[in-house]
Specification:
Helix content is about 30%, strand content about 25%. It is an alpha+beta fold and about 55 residues long. The protein is flat, with a radius of gyration of 16 Å.
């Protein structure tokens, strides 16, 4: 019998789409509560929007 140990890694990220195409992805830490990262994520998204104004 062969056993294969497969585990899924948790990921969290900021994703920016432009006309449905994912154009930017930035990973954020998987530890801690998501709420703790919201201020930094909002700031980063504002910076991205300044450079990529059509991104959603």
């Amino acid at each position: 019998m062969v056993r294969e140990n497969m585990t899924a890694k948790k990921t969290r990220y900021i994703s920016v789409r432009n006309d449905g195409e994912e154009t930017y992805v930035e990973n954020i830490p998987v530890t801690g509560r998501m709420r703790d990262y919201l201020p930094a994520a909002k700031l980063r998204l504002r910076e991205i929007q300044r450079v990529m104004p059509l991104g959603k």
